[in-house]
Amino acid sequence: MAFNISEAAPDWLNKGDNAWQMISATLVGIQSVPGLVILYGSIVKKKWAVNSAFMALYAFAAVLICWVCWAYKMSFGEELLPFWGKPGFSLGQNYLLAQAELPESTQYDGAGGVATAMAQPYYPMASLVYFQFVFAAITLILLAGSLLGRMNFKAWVVFVPLWLTFSYTVGAFSMWGGGFLFHWGVMDYAGGYVIHLSSGIAGLTAAYWVGPRTQSDREDFTPNNILLTLMGAGLLWMGWSGFNGGAPYAVNLVASMAVLNTHICAATSLVVWTCMDVIYFNKPSVIGAIQGMITGLVCITPGAGLVQGWAALIMGILSGSIPWFTMMILHKRSKLLQKVDDTLGMFHTHAVAGLLGGICTGIFAEPKLSRLFLPVPGSRGLTYGGPGGMQLLKQLVAAAFIIGLNVVVTSIICLAIRVVIPLRMSEEQLLVGDDAVHGEEAYALWGDGKKFDEESI
């Protein structure tokens, strides 16, 4: 079989960048499948293990189909509105094999705005579409963490493409795809707002409309396998190297800085959260350590390639203490938060930590690193003086936009779905769990309501 190698490797193709982009995308994909599939399936009560894991698995597959059929171009394509792109297929050979293109940013030189393209990636569009898909997929899977243990699976099947289409694409285009927040100079390095703040707020909102778990499940929701939970958490942590390391779209200095900062912040946050547990409860908690790890990873994400190492350390201290306070203290005192059943506390671990990371980016973003990420003059954190205060204001305004967007759109989607499909499972399904919903159980062990048959021995 004849094969023209020169055509398969054009002059513009950088094989190193292309390899790293595909590896990074796969690392992020592994965070979801099997990472969050394992974590969700093991951190919940045994009777919900299959359903929880399946919600994550389904979302991953459904998002990919929607992504290549219309959602990628709504997020990164031609502008339809200042906050939304035009839908379109990302399936054609000519499109996917062409050199990847990034949105243009508007620089102001004092004599008027001049549109200047960011550094063009040296790999095909197929790699970029794949990389951005895994980001979109993990957002829906994180959102699911707020709804485990009671959402009707049929409603979830419909919710995933609707929320991707009408919420995620708006946030992604506005922040990354050439929308109004992108041009204004808001900095969200790898998704602290687009992914984590969005999923945390949308998860809390959807949890309100779906309703709570049964009272018995809320009172006793013991993980069915903590060791497997640790395995899922480990895949999530290590996969974050691709999450933040692939965001510069090249194997460059920023990628290296981002990866190291990611692990500094996560490790610090885990240790701080554990210390807080020991000080306040006199017991170190494995689940608490995992939550601290996650808040550290989330907090550093919007600024991973924009801050120096010392700032990553400070962000780790903040992400290990502030979300701990909102989850362990404030949550128990808030009537609103008590009313809404956020199964895995995604509001605290993702919305609070994501907002904290965005604010810290507005404070600690280093000018040189900021210019490498976003060529908008004056992009710098408050710590470095000059227009740094303006950057912090931009970060706060962008957070308000993302919060408002997700509260409104998620509410509309949930209200629309429940007209035709119940959002919550039936009482029988809620009582029995996986066997009633899927006809399957996580562990084929004797017990759990089955009668002992002496004649079978």
From TrEMBL:
It comes from the Eukaryota. It is a multi-pass membrane protein. The chain crosses the membrane at residues 20-41, 53-73, 128-148, 155-177, 189-210, 222-243, 249-273, 285-304, 310-331, 343-365, 396-421. Keywords: Ammonia transport, Membrane, Transmembrane, Transmembrane helix, Transport. It is found in: Cell membrane; Membrane. The keyword Calcium does not apply. InterPro entries: Ammonium/urea_transptr, Ammonium_transpt, Ammonium_transpt_CS, NH4_transpt_AmtB-like_dom. GO terms for molecular function: ammonium channel activity. GO terms for cellular component: plasma membrane. Residues 19-443 form the Ammonium transporter AmtB-like domain. Belongs to the ammonia transporter channel (TC 1.A.11.2) family. PANTHER family: AMMONIUM TRANSPORTER MEP2. NCBIfam families: amt. This is Ammonium transporter. The lineage of its organism: Eukaryota, Viridiplantae, Streptophyta, Embryophyta, Tracheophyta.
